[in-house]
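Why show two proteins at once? Because comparison is the fastest way to build intuition. When a single record is shown, students tend to memorize it. When two are placed side by side, the eye starts asking what differs. So, the first record is below.
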Amino acid sequence: MLDADGASAGVLCSLTDISEQRRLEDQVKFVHDSRAGFLHVLAHELRNPLAPVMAAATLLQRRPGAPGMDRMAGVIARQTRKLARFVDDLLEGSRIEQAGDTPVFKRASNLDEVLENACDVVGCVLSERGQTLKLRIPAQGQVRGAILWCDPERLAQALGGALLNASQFSDDGAAISLAVAVDGVFLELLVSDHGIGVEEGELPLLFQPFRKFAPHPARAESGAGLGLAVARSVSRAHGGTVSADSAGRGQGLRLKFVLPVVLDATSA
């Protein structure tokens, strides 16, 4: 600044806080990097199940009725289920990003059927890894046969995703626990494992779509990072919540669903 005689009278400085701009730029970069990584995983995951399916199908065509037919048919069934589950997760991830929550179609449903369908989602994976699922239901109480007002397919999908997550981050031969309880209108589901665990600061990130963490050291990275995002979306669509808790690395993970979906437990 100059005075009337043209001499310097002072300096005017203007400062602009760009912290918000930097934060947004970092978010954009994270999304871009996530998408790039996702496309890589997509190509990898779709190719891996298809290779053994195609090989087994070729052998079945060349040698109809040959010994080992059942084993090769089993390979086809397992790998196609894996591929179908992955594609379903992709579609679900797209819905979550566009609409925020998963659409649900509620109807009266039996809790036992929901649990059975969820266990079917993870059954083959547990068998391949020699893992066991321990279902914990109180001997006393109104749990077995309880009637729910929910979308049974979506609820089984959410619970199955939590069970798959527990399997993915647990040792081969490990035990995974599913505790089931009914408290008034609330259905409480607790999935617990003794796997690699999660640091406290990472817990809020578990439910973000496409967010992936370090894999189990004895297992290749798999999936698109959508299982728990779908679980949260389905829980919200039912008016409930799902939360995560871990004591840290090597201490396992607990996922708890609290869902106000119990319509009638008197018949349990």
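Second record. Ask yourself what differs from the first in the token line.
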Amino acid sequence: MAVQPTIGRLGAVHPTRSELGVCLAPLRPTGGCMDRNRAFDLVRTEFHVILLCSGGAADQMVDLEMHHHEPGSLLWIRPGQVHERPPAVEGTAVCFTDEFLGADSSMRVGPTSWNLGADDLGDVRAHLAVLEGEYERYVFGPTGPHLAQGDTMLRHLLLAFLLRLGQAPALHAGKPVEPHPVAQAFFDLVERSFSTLHTAEEYAAVLGYSSKTVARASVEASGLTPKRVIDARLALEARRLLAYTDLSVSVVGRRLGFDDAANFCKFFTRATGTTPGSFRASRRG
């Protein structure tokens, strides 16, 4: 009998101070955050998780995609993504909520992984060190008037860290992604509308650009045509629903904008090389 993986949910970002919307902790094999939800195979958090590796090497699955940790690698797991618990590597975990940062919906999309070069890694670590120092002072140091507006300072230091990270070349499907405003607008819209908009022409119309402009931006930024970007996002959501829910294939298809189950099955088979039923069985076998 097929077994559906058990997915745990983590709500509060800080294990002991639920009112605090940010948490920094060293990555280590046991203790601290590693002891949370040990009973579950997979975890879905309601907050952002950034993992910067400084030692060791291991793989971690996020939304059915494997990510490799090694010194200098950084992984950004966003709210709602299903992922394995962090592997036993050395490094730092930075967790925060949208509410703490005052982030808009754009924080829920964007690059997920980086292999930081020497200069970028040095700068990112320097920003992280300042953030860590202020976090230690605010959370674990003696209380007093010197900590007034400490949460505001943490918020600004976290934002500075994220902005510096955003200046470093990110990876998409293992390849560098070049910053491009039109492409970013397209990627953000795909994240919000993949279940209702299925063609490049529809996205171009909403964005107010020609189809050629969107296509050129997408290829320049990621090496992928708009159709491949749209299909990949649809396929990812389909795989999520098939692997982690008991929804029927037809219901999964309808959630993704396919009125006919046969059309959804054709799309899924073309995009993944296997049928929805075979994929679900392989994940639970």
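One difference worth noting in the second protein: The radius of gyration is 20 Å.
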